[in-house]
Design a protein that fits this description.
By secondary structure, this protein is of the alpha/beta class. It has 2 domains: 8-132, Rossmann fold (3-Layer(aba) Sandwich); 138-187, no CATH class. The chain is built from 11 helices and 4 strands. Strands 2-1-3-4 form a 4-stranded parallel sheet, with helices on both faces. The protein starts with 7 loop residues before the first strand and ends in a 5-residue tail after the last helix. The mean pLDDT is 94.
Length: 192
């Protein structure tokens, strides 16, 4: 979309790890509601953690998922942020790379479940907001309700193992610590 500035959000590993949150965030990005970004380090982090916790999965499956993510969200990878990392201070030094990537790509937000790791005072210095995925998704939905509902309907249509009813999908979203999104979608479940 030449000439149109889109909202840019860096997705932390903790929101890419659970498939329901990852699928929802990427579905909204695929619908052009915002531009999703991440780094190879973020990608490696969620993949490594998932393989550690789910020995039934294999690296090849997750590499295919990563390739599918990159196809769904062109220009998703942030590179060249390493020089920024050592200049940053966060409660968990292991999260500095996420903020560095957000600074490098001029992100508006970092979407994370670990809000304490990105204190508002620090984030304000860079004009970046840390948002919980529930708040972030609701913000995207409220800006473009019809487009967001259509994206979620398409997401539900892609679920085949097992397929999910709208009510099942909403329950899954709610179990991911996303009560606002679930409550909103219940009112519109006949459209998803």
């Amino acid at each position: 979309m030449p000439g149109i500035a889109r909202y840019v959000a860096v997705l932390d590993a903790c929101v890419l790890y659970p498939a329901p949150i990852r699928d929802l965030l990427l579905s909204l990005a695929d619908a052009d509601l915002y531009h999703a970004k991440w780094t190879r380090q973020i990608q490696d982090e969620w993949v490594t953690n998932l393989l550690t916790n789910r020995p039934d999965l294999c690296r090849g499956q997750l590499e295919k998922t990563c390739a599918d993510m990159a196809t769904a969200v062109p220009d998703c990878m942030v590179d060249g942020y390493d020089f920024i990392v050592s200049t940053l201070t966060l409660p968990d030094p292991g999260d500095r790379h996420v903020l560095a990537a957000a600074i490098k790509c001029n992100a508006d937000a970092i979407v994370t479940l670990n809000m304490r790791d990105f204190p508002q005072a620090t984030m304000d210095q860079y004009g970046i907001e840390a948002q919980h995925p529930d708040d972030f998704v609701m913000n995207q939905i409220e800006l473009s309700v019809p487009e967001a509902l259509e994206a979620i309907k398409k997401l539900r249509g892609r679920l085949r193992n097992p397929p999910k009813s709208a009510a099942d999908l909403i329950t899954t979203i709610e179990k991911q610590s996303m009560p606002q999104t679930a409550e909103f979608l219940r009112a519109w479940q006949n459209l998803i």
